[in-house]
Amino acid sequence: QEEFKKNMDKRLPQMQYRSHLNLKTAMELLE
Asked: What pLDDT shows up at residue 25?
């Protein structure tokens, strides 16, 4: 799953990167 997240990071446009970090933080809190 970590590999999947890293691949997602590479594909994300620079503009959406910050939003993705916020989403990833929320996901970690849910875990």
From this structure: 92
Count of structural domains, the chain: 1
Distance, in Å, from the CA atom of 7 to the CA atom of 22, rounded to the nearest integer, reads 17
Under 8 Å between Cβ of 14 and 2 = no
Domain holding 9, by residue range, is 1-31
For each of the chain's 31 residues, which pLDDT tens digit applies?
789 888 777 776 665 778 878 889 989 998 7
Task: With CA atoms as reference, report the closest residue to 23 among 3, 1, 4, 5.
Answer: 5
Three-class SS of residue 23? helix
